[in-house]
């Protein structure tokens, strides 16, 4: 199911994912808990930022966490050992298509579909792994929902670079708005999707720092070299765009972004 991970496997990206998970824990995970003893599959665990939330919010689950990156899995194991030392996780270096003759009660997928060339095929495969009556929970962002003050064409241009590069790599940075039709097309029943919105201004400094600066702007900055190499922006144009985007995290600046969370059943 792999598609080129546009943000790269770097220490900076690991920090960004960790900051994002901590800052948005309640926003993204609120309303999601699983009964003890449930078999839960986390498809695409990355560096374990969301895994920590799963095992601490649903103690006693039988969690299987898979990822195609051995380096990310190693970081995930270390992160869970540090932040949830009592948790037991079945870690696997695997693609979801590698799972055979297994069934789960629930599947959790966060920030994975945006990187896949065929998200419907992945969702169909995950449905095949679910027991009757099981659920899938999917969380994705949508970079088209990012708007900010002060408004700046130069800042918008660097955000658009991220969207364009992800599309070139086979993914979709605007996938959040598509969750309902994707889940329905994959055959899930009772599909429910809703927005999870982040708004940050100087009155919520933890969101300005944790989300505007250390999550979103850091995500845009992660594609700087690719954007310049592809000729999308010159170094000077990129620097100007980031300077303008940074103003959204300064006093008087504001930032808005919407995630989408969907649940379907078998």
Automatic annotation (TrEMBL):
UniProt KW keywords: Methyltransferase, Transferase
Recorded GO MF terms: methyltransferase activity
Record keyword DNA-binding present: no
One Pfam family per UniProt: Methyltransf_12
Record-linked InterPro entries: Methyltransf_12, SAM-dependent_MTases_sf
Full protein name: Methyltransferase
Organism: Kribbella sp. HUAS MG21
GO biological process entries: methylation
Annotated Methyltransferase type domain residues: 41-136
């Amino acid at each position: 199911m792999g598609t080129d991970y546009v943000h790269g496997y770097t220490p900076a990206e690991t920090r960004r994912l960790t900051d994002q998970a901590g800052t948005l824990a309640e926003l993204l995970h609120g309303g999601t808990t699983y009964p003890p003893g449930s078999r839960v599959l986390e498809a695409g665990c990355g560096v374990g930022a969301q895994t920590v939330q799963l095992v601490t919010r649903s103690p006693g689950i039988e969690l299987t966490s898979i990822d195609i990156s051995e380096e990310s899995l190693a970081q995930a194991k270390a992160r869970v050992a540090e932040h949830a030392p009592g948790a037991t996780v079945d870690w696997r270096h695997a693609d979801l298509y590698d799972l055979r003759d297994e069934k789960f009660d629930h599947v959790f997928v966060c920030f994975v579909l945006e990187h896949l060339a065929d998200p419907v095929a992945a969702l169909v495969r995950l449905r095949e792994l679910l027991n009757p009556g099981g659920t899938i929970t999917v969380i994705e962002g949508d970079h088209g929902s990012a708007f900010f003050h002060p408004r700046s064409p130069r800042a918008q241009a660097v955000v658009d670079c991220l969207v364009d590069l992800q599309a070139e790599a086979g993914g979709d940075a605007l996938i959040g708005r598509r969750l309902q039709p994707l889940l329905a097309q994959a055959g899930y029943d009772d599909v429910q999707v809703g927005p999870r919105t982040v708004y940050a201004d100087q009155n919520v400094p933890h969101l300005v720092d944790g989300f505007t600066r250390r999550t979103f702007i850091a995500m845009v900055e992660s594609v700087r070299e690719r954007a310049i190499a592809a000729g999308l922006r010159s170094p000077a144009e990129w620097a100007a765009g980031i300077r303008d985007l940074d103003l959204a995290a300064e006093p008087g600046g504001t930032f808005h972004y919407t995630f989408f969370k969907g649940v379907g059943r078998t």
